[in-house]
Amino acid sequence: MSQSVLLTAAVEDTEVVRSELKKLKITPLHYPLERYEAVEADKDTVETLELVGEFENIVYGSKRNARFFVEKVKAYDKLEEVREQLNLAADQHTADYLEGEGIPAVHPHSDGNSIDLMEFMLRIRRIGETLYPCGDKTAEDLPGLLKELDVPVEELVLFTLEGPKEEDLQAYRKDLSAHEPEIVIFHSRRSVNRTLAAFPSLNYGKVQVISGDQAVTDKLKREDIETDRQATGNWNSILEEMAESG
């Protein structure tokens, strides 16, 4: 019999995860408590887009970042200039999206770890001025790693993170009441707050709890929730924990 798992991360962050869960014969109960919205381009954003051809690299930490960037450069008629740049993708999923938009993409054939992409850039000696599309509430470590090596990085903020709409939240609660999960994933510290607030009647003592990393585990402990399995800070490791728990 298939197990079910409560998953609350944004749609854009869970495409691969939801597909892999089905391969593990685990039914995702996906109620996104996070959603991304594009922000209006300010003067600095417009100036950066006008100068996009002057960067040595454009680095994409995720398909989400790539999608918001491509939408913006299309709006400002800069797609052809982007296609002529060196576009570096963190993983195959992101590279495939860029290729689908006609943007040649290079990636280090890794699991999407920031350190692997940084080492790849060093290996091919692309350590000049780098453009990094991102959001304003997303914790990404690659820009910081590059800055530590004195690589000039411009973080281009294109989207923001919001909570669910009230009507969506009510629909999630109604559906969850009919499909109680066997597993709950807390992928981040933020997800702990959002999940507890969204589903206060869920008995976390009767489900298997998977934590995204040690910081999430610590936060769950402060909420008197025991962690059954702990991942190492990325979705691949969460999937590995789920596969082993099965």
TrEMBL record:
Residues 19-231 form the Tetrapyrrole biosynthesis uroporphyrinogen III synthase domain. CDD domains: HemD. One of its GO terms (molecular function) is uroporphyrinogen-III synthase activity. InterPro entries: 4pyrrol_syn_uPrphyn_synt_sf, 4pyrrol_synth_uPrphyn_synth. GO terms for biological process: tetrapyrrole biosynthetic process. It holds the Pfam family HEM4. It comes from the Bacteria. This is Uroporphyrinogen-III synthase.
